[in-house]
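Collaborator request, handled under Task 6.
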Amino acid sequence: MSASATPQSATDPATRTWGAPISARAATVSSSAPASIPFTISRAPARPSASAVACPMPRPAPVTITTLSINPPVSARMIDLRNLRTPPVRAFSPAGPSATRACRNTCLRMCPVNSRRRARSLFTAVARCTQGNDPDRRVQRDCTVRERPIRCARSPHIRRPPDFMQLQSVVPPLTRSGWRAKSGWIVLPAILVLALLVRLAGLRFGLPALNDPDELMFEMGSVRMLRSASLNPGWFGHPATTTMYLLSAINAGVYLFGHALGWFANPQAFLGAIYADPSWFIAPGRFAMALFGVWCVALTYRLGKALFDPASGLAAAALLALDPVHVGYSQVIRSDIMASAFMLLALLAAVRIRNDGRWRDVVLAGIWVAAAAATKWPFAAVGLGVVGACLLRMANPRRAEALRAARKIAVFSAVTLAALVIISPYLVLDYATALKDVQGESQTNHVGANGGAPLWNALWYVRVPLASAFGYVGLALAAGGIGLAARRRPVAAILFPVMLALFTITIFQHLIWVRWILPLVPLLSVLAGFAAVRLVRALSTRFTAPVPALGAALAAIVLVPLAMGVRANATERNHDTRQIATRWAERHIPPGSTIIIEHFGFDLMSRPWNYLFPLVDAGCVDARALLGGKVEYGKIQALRGGHHNVDYGTLYPARRGTCRADYAILSQYDRYAAEASLFPAEMASYKELLSRSTLITTIRPQRGISGGPQSRFGRIERLIPDGTGPLRSLPVVPAASAAM
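Structure tokens returned to the collaborator:
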């Protein structure tokens, strides 16, 4: 049927025209809105089909297939179809096992039909019948129409055919024609391309220096597996097993590619290259993390679409694509982004379990939860979402269905444990190391990351990382989305338990890290996207404004500040104070000098200086000799003596005499000074060093210009402590000036 169909004679049995009054719950469109809406109902002619499904009903002919054309386009909150009095015909549903489930759904599904004329809004209404003994008759189902949810109320009458179904939240202007109807196929790829571009921009920041020391920890675990030809990474703190397996595969690929081109004659040459310049394995690893970040954006769209509608999914994907926190951690080698992807896959499987209850999805959910836990322990909380989906099915009054749901929980638990052992077998085979590493992650204090009471931690996470991730408007949308979605059973049972568990685990820790909020970021993006779509539709109904214009305005309000934050973060990362310190040293430190460094300054190795690195019990060691010997990470771990930070402050006091240097670049002093009461021993070490040194310059980060820690240059005047002389300092040099 064409959208331009005109009303025919009332005597035509196939087409009738009515003026149906709007229900009392209808929204007021404008003061000039008519009291009745003229529309045309065209009954589809009955035809034999192998896909026709006859539903067992107490009386025949319970279902109607109609085409509803509303002219002029109006917006209504409720259209009561009881006044249509359309003659019932047979429903056409897919044949097979799903036909029985479809037959039990008393749902009016509205499907937009493309039209060349914008004056009409054409829908196809497909009503499905319900069995007379349907135990779920009082449960509301969520139907999806392209970009909007339609809630179909179930009949409260068991013995009555569903000839009075109600349609809520119909906004015909969203039914677009022409290229607008296909815009959804354009928007998502555009969002994914944007997400990829912002994550690839500045991906090589800092290299060959390593500004994030944890990147080296993950890469050294992968190198250990390649050197020993073993699947044992030797470290299980996160446990990050999947991350190190992926990095091992990437590094093996880099070697094979370089070997084919003649860059590396043998594996030893490749190892020598990565110890001299970590860019060989850091850059490919960062690229893989960026791809996982883009995958998270795509999965967030799918989750928003599955829980709400495609428009909410697109809004959520756009938020995550330009999320400064998510973008930043998609550019470093860590386990958080990979774990987030596995978490989203598990939640999608949970939604399918709630909808269909297939055993295949139960098994997949167990695998994804195991992969998330093997990547980072707290992400195991996503299993609560799968259990919630099964509990929704257990709420069915039929005993058989409830028992099947209980069996699904048992099978899911068994699959999760088995998959965890398969993915990370050395959690069991090397359980002693695993237990030691997990206990080592339980810290009570860490310089620069000490928290407080749970309430203080919660407020900090909202004020700092979440405000940076979403902006205040985005945070308000996320809060609104939580309130709006609380009435939806799938969201309340699947999404909310996971969010509550993750947030509770986070705020009850002694430490506070921005990255610990990463698992909540895609979930809050979904809720914020849902709230944004609802807000746009409400404003469109209230002010009769076009939805695209309102959507673009809201997107600009929310996304432009986020994009500016992404740009500022990228600028700061590419102008780090530690690399500025390297350029300053080239102009002011004479060749042949010996320098104490506290960061992984691989960019300094090509300069004509000698370097000492403070390594706790080992004292200050020769950095060139350490790298030239291709030291393994296990040896460094043993020398650290359980300290999570390796710097001059943690140096064993009896080993200070080994630090015989001319200069010192201190990048950790100010972090300890900000929490001096918590680290008295470390501050004593720094004060002793500064008492026999002259402060030359200080390079400070500037918002939007340079990032990194505050770095201090000191010229060591006396090698052996002989008192506490005054600290003679020169004027502070900002980072922008020091770089000149």
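The cover message to the collaborator said: "The two ends are 72 Å apart (CA to CA). Residues 103 and 129 are 5 Å apart (CA to CA). Please let us know whether this matches your experimental observations."
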